[in-house]
Specification:
Blueprint lengths: L4 E2 L29 H8 L1 E4 L4 E3 L36 H8 L3 E8 L2 E9 L5 E4 L1 H4 L4 E6 L6 E9 L4 E6 L20 E6 L9 E16 L2 E9 L11 E3 L5 E10 L10 E5 H15 L7 E2 L2 E5 L7 E6 L4 H4 L7 E5 L2 E2 L3 H9 L6 E8 L2 E8 L1 E2 L4
Parallel strand pairs: 1-17
Antiparallel strand pairs: 2-14, 3-5, 4-5, 4-7, 5-6, 6-9, 7-8, 8-9, 10-11, 10-13, 11-12, 12-15, 13-14, 14-15, 16-23, 17-18, 18-19, 19-20, 19-21, 21-22
Length: 387
């Protein structure tokens, strides 16, 4: 059986919205975090902001809606140039007005109900990026633009469940494409605005102000492991999934994805997560390639992982699968992974995400600690088995 998986899940799915089928849950890991701030993020239940699920109301969409194209756009993504002076204070009304034409509400027919979320227009010819969990298992997907009353059908071009992003496209041209921020411009403490259709409420998108609370966070749940996340205290609610987190210039710094929720023994207030622009840009380009027919060969190392519970750095290797790169490199049970390609890691979610971001055939450097000694191994990753 395929490993590269923690022995205990770190996060849980949220409870279903009224009318939805119940989802399975699993207990959070008992790892003791290194910092009080991380305590909330790791032990608190993290709910994917999958949007509301309920009965689909009204008549079927009329047949006049155009059939959307099923190929990716040829347009380059709009990415801001690096600049010396970066405005960090947000004029919320100005930013919201600037970004709103590039934000859409998404409704997807899923299991007899409707999943609602948000998307970002990224090309003038109708490409949209959103979270994969918003449209997972959808039989039909529709979007509605700011100022419009009728929804538009969209095609699902490609989806990456592991990285929680999906690429859609609608018919037409002349849309307002969002601009992505320069990845190097995002800084701790910057003011940011989360924009999206929270709770599926009528009218214009909801706008909330916060700051970049932390960078390079990692979280994991089920088959989704994300790293390089932006943590923000801007309020994020169900329905915000797939919407933009933007800076003072109205540039997208992240795609809103998850929110921490407290339990009976822990507190979590305004702890939200967005897929950073540094992570999102290459994923979007990979989705475009997949839409054009490219096959993604997900990388595999061949170990079982467990988070430490003593507050120390590193991830414990609990198993090594025979015939895998890990076994060939001499990795043994009990080794600690403390860095991947020179980037330190404190949790299994970050290790898994770092490996899954690669492709089979890529070379990766793993830093281990064994009996107090640092060991560097370089391995060529193989394709992840199907089971």
């Amino acid at each position: 059986m395929a490993t590269d998986w923690p022995t205990k899940p770190v996060f849980m799915l949220p409870p279903p919205a009224p009318g939805a089928a119940p989802l399975p849950s699993a207990p959070p890991a008992s790892r003791r975090p290194r910092r009080a701030l991380l305590l909330v993020a790791i032990i608190a239940t993290v709910a994917w902001v999958a949007g509301l699920t309920g009965a689909l109301l009204g008549d079927q969409l009329s047949d006049w809606l155009d059939k959307p194209p099923n190929r990716a756009s040829d347009e380059p993504l709009n990415v801001a140039e690096p600049r010396d002076v970066i405005e960090t204070r947000v004029n919320v009304a100005k930013v919201a007005d600037y970004v709103a034409p590039s934000v859409v509400t998404i409704s997807a027919d899923v299991n007899g109900g409707t999943s609602l979320g948000t998307g970002v227009i990224i090309s003038t010819d109708g490409e949209i990026v959103t979270n994969a969990h918003v449209i997972k298992d959808a039989t039909e997907i529709r979007v509605r633009l700011a100022g419009e009353t009728e929804p538009r059908r969209v095609s699902l071009l490609a989806s990456d469940r592991g990285n929680d992003l999906a690429l859609l496209r609608m018919s037409g041209d002349g849309f307002e494409a969002a601009t992505f921020a320069d990845p190097g411009s995002v800084r701790l403490g910057d003011e940011v605005v989360a924009i999206g259709f929270a709770l599926g409420l009528d009218g214009e998108p909801s706008v909330t102000l916060g700051i970049v609370s932390a960078l390079r966070r990692s979280i994991g749940q089920s088959d989704v492991f994300l790293d390089g996340l932006i943590q923000t205290d801007a309020a994020i609610s169900s329905g915000n999934s797939g919407g933009p987190l933007v800076n003072a210039a109205g540039e997208v710094v992240g795609i809103n994805t998850a929110v921490a929720r407290g339990t009976s023994t822990t507190a979590a207030t305004n702890v939200g997560f967005a897929i950073s622009v540094a992570e999102a840009l290459p994923i979007v380009e990979a989705l475009r390639a997949q839409a054009a027919g490219a096959l993604r060969r997900e990388a595999y190392f061949g170990v079982g992982l467990e988070d430490r519970r003593d507050g120390g750095q590193g991830v414990i290797i609990t198993g090594v699968e025979a015939g895998t790169p890990a076994a060939s490199a001499g990795v043994v049970v009990g080794d600690l992974i403390v860095a991947v390609d020179g980037s330190t890691t404190d949790g299994s979610a970050g290790v898994i995400a770092a490996i899954r971001d690669r492709e089979a055939g890529d070379t990766i450097d793993i830093t281990l600690v064994r009996e107090g000694n640092l060991i560097e191994v370089t391995v060529e990753l193989i394709e992840r088995p199907d089971n």
